[in-house]
Amino acid sequence: MHKEFIYHKTGKQTIVELTAEEEAEAIAQAAADADKRKAAEAMSKLREIDLASIRGIREYLAAQPDAPKIIKERETQAAAERAKLTAR
């Protein structure tokens, strides 16, 4: 048997005895929670990278002589919005 300490918001501490099966489940759940947090952090970083890449890709494509009109228009719109931010 394993003893687990549970802390309450009130500051009280409770000691609960876990069976080997309950302890294994608690360990597995803690590992799964840690894996979920790591995956969420990685997804967040990937979103940041993707968003940062979009501007560069759009600028590059708009500078190409055969760029589609919509890409050039969107880059012009984006440049105008960036200008508003720097004008402050």
Which descriptors would you attach to this protein?
88 residues; alpha+beta; 70% helix; elongated
Provide an overview of this structure:
With 88 residues, the chain is of the alpha+beta class. The chain has one domain (2-86). It has helices at residues 20-63, 69-86, and strands at residues 2-7, 13-18. Strands 1-2 form a two-stranded antiparallel sheet. Helix 1 packs across helix 2 (69-86). The N and C termini lie far apart (65 Å).
Looking at the structure, what is the overall shape?
elongated
**Largest sheet strand order:** 1-2
What would you call the quaternary organization?
single chain
Q: What is the CA-CA span between the terminal residues?
A: 65 Å
Summarize model confidence as the mean pLDDT: 86
Q: Please give the count of helices.
A: 2
Q: Estimate nothing, just give the exact number of structural domains.
A: 1
> Major beta sheet, specifics?
2 strands, antiparallel
Strand content: 5-15%
Radius of gyration: 26 Å
Low-confidence stretches: none
Q: What is the structural class?
A: alpha+beta
Spell out the helices and strands N to C: EEHH
Measured as a percent range, the helix fraction is over 70%
Number of strands: 2
